Amino acid sequence: MDVRLTSEQRQLRDAAAKLADGLGPGSVLDLDDARRRTRLEDAVAGTGFRELRSDGASGVEVAIVAEEFARGLVDVPFLGPVLADDLQGRLDGDTARWTVAHTGVAIDASGCDRVLKLEDSGVFAGPVGDEVAGADLTRPAGAAAGPWEPRGDISAGHRDRWLALALTTTCADLVGAARGAQRLAVEYAKVRSQYGNTIGSYQAIGHLLAESEALIEGSISVLWHAAWAVDELEPEQALRAARIAKIYAARAARTVCETAIQVHGGIGNTWECLAHVYLRRALVSAELFPVHLEEAGLGLS
Question: SUPFAM superfamilies under this entry (predicted)?
Fold first, then answer.
């Protein structure tokens, strides 16, 4: 396994990061800015990021975009549409926007009108219903209650590889959210002063941030192995790698995001601080296609 990005993949990362930094919400108030979100939607639609898999992109390239979008709290659909694209491909003449269902909910469903669900090896399609209340302020969900129409069956290998991609992409989202929360905390620690010094100069704060950085680096390591495995290993092996990555990244991201709130002190518990938006996103991504230790072969005997 070669973890180095190609020049094209570095360009993809730069493009996704530039889009997220330029049009993603810079504050909680920005989440209600419809004009900004419309510009962001137009930009994402124009990139073709949602059709990466049918364009031949690898799991690594999907993870690159997912990570940068989470870091920048991109609040237009990507995760749901890109997984739907992998599940059914691009349909000729189809003007609908597709997402996927998880436990009866159409995820990442803003602006989506059709949803796919996978049951065993059968793919079914249905409408996206009314918005469903959820913790994530950046990715509204919709009801997925049918009626359902069969869209055919997929092979066991395709099913496992798709599940590996779904786990890896949510893992990338967790890593991105952790990176964004960590950046927020570090920047705050550089400017917030207590007793005549910036709080980042105090050992207690420095150690918290260093521990978060170590958790992020560990998450990056397991993420890139899982992303590489999506296309390079046998489906069963790819699925196991993705499950291990999801377990690690879900726990690490929650710790990093909660630490960011802690570093902010009292302001970290207010609505105006972006730290809770990262935590909300991480908590929801952790529960999308959740994994137990036993499923990854990591259960205690």
Answer: Acyl-CoA dehydrogenase C-terminal domain-like (SSF47203)
Give the list of residues 6+ apart from residue 116 with CB closer than 8 angstroms, or none: 84, 87, 88, 98, 99, 100, 101, 123, 124, 125, 151
Question: CA 224 to CA 201: how far, in whole Å?
Answer: 33
Q: How far apart are CA 160 and CA 242, in angstroms?
A: 10
CA–CA gap between residue 301 and residue 299 (Å, rounded):
6
Percent of the chain with pLDDT over 70: 97
Instruction: Express each pLDDT in 148-175 by its tens digit.
Output: 999 999 999 999 999 999 999 999 999 9
Within 10 A of 193 (CB to CB), how many other CB atoms are there?
10
The helix/strand/coil state of 139 is coil
Contact 124, 88 (CB under 8 A): no
Alpha-carbon torsion, ordered 155, 161, 167, 170, to 10 deg: -100
The answer to whether the bond into 147 is cis (omega within 30° of 0) is yes
Neighbours of 28 (CB within 10 A): 16
**What is d(CA 170, CA 289) in angstroms, rounded to the nearest whole number?**
8
Of the candidates 278, 254, 265, the residue with the CA atom closest to the CA atom of residue 204:
265
Q: What mean pLDDT comes out for the span 225-253? A: 97
